[in-house]
Design brief:
Layout (H helix, E strand, L loop, with lengths): L1 E4 L11 H9 L2 E4 L2 H10 L6 E3 L5 H13 L4 E4 L12 H9 L4 E4 L4 H9 L6 E5 L5 H11 L5 E6 L4 H12 L3 E6 L7 E6 L12 E5 L13 H10 L4 H12 L3 H10 L2
Helix pairs in contact: 3-4, 8-9, 9-10
């Protein structure tokens, strides 16, 4: 049996009684970083064998874990913070558990994305969790184009070293929208920073961020058009191609160079 357990995202008191009981009952614990998890486990006097299970070794050791679970051992999977599997290791192991008909369950608890979404004050009825932007620019471009017209609130994870670059990228493809950055959540210095994407992040970047970005406006008539269709609307109305590109960029709140690249690419 494997127990997938959410752990605190900041304040170590944000853990359930059931989670502590379960961690004390299993044969071993899979940790993203054993040194980091040791701090939490030590606080609650949990003394169990720890096994490192992270993105660099999960494929390699999953088979060994399956073998142990198949021999009626029990284990817990935790990440450094929040819910395993959400931008953290876990998915590969869960697929193998299902494939091998091994029982598992999830113990609910903290999740940075949900915590930040509620803290942001933006619409929580419909939202899309994206996680971290891809490292490759071409993949980022492809993914953000899909989101440009989505009316859902968008949830991103952002590293401190890339926050300025990532916000610029989001502005280039999504236009000028309201954004809220949440940092140090559940800790003493928890912050909620509201700004417009075009203005960039207004403070010093420290710690991990969750960035909440408002969705596309549903009352914008252009949301139903592709970029090429949008430009052609102005061309057909008598504007030159360049003027049509400028007006389209203004309508969408994005840089004209991004519109130009899309139009030229499709010619």
């Amino acid at each position: 049996m494997l127990y997938i357990i959410a752990t605190p995202i900041g304040n170590l008191k944000d853990i359930t009684y059931r989670a502590i009981e379960t961690l004390n009952s299993v044969d071993f614990i899979l940790c993203e970083d054993t040194r980091h998890s040791a701090l939490l486990l030590s606080k609650y006097d949990i003394k169990k064998p720890l096994i490192a299970y992270h993105k660099f070794n999960e494929k390699e050791i999953t088979e060994k874990i399956i073998q142990r679970l198949s021999n009626n051992e029990s284990a817990a999977l935790i990440s450094d913070a929040g819910m395993p599997g959400i931008s953290d290791p876990g998915f590969i192991l869960i697929k193998e558990l299902i494939k091998n008909n091994i029982e598992y369950t999830v113990l609910p608890g903290a999740c940075a994305a949900i915590n930040a979404l509620v803290l942001s004050g933006m619409n929580c009825d419909k939202f899309l969790f994206f996680g971290f932007l891809p490292e490759k620019q071409s993949k980022t471009e492809k993914e953000l184009k899909k989101l440009a017209d989505a009316e859902y609130t968008l949830v991103f994870y952002i590293s401190p070293h890339s926050i300025e670059k990532d916000i610029t990228t989001l502005f280039n493809y999504l236009g000028n929208r309201k954004a809220v950055a949440l940092r140090e959540m559940t800790k003493v210095y928890e912050e909620r920073i509201e700004f417009m994407l075009k203005d960039g992040y207004p403070k010093e970047s420290r710690g991990e961020f969750v960035l909440i970005v408002e969705g596309a406006k549903s009352d914008n008539d252009y949301n139903s058009l592709s970029i090429e269709e949008h430009v052609n609307t102005y061309v057909n109305a008598g504007f030159s191609l360049m003027d049509a590109i400028k007006k389209t960029a203004k309508d969408r709140g994005v840089l004209k160079n991004e519109i130009y690249k899309q139009v030229i690419k499709n010619k």
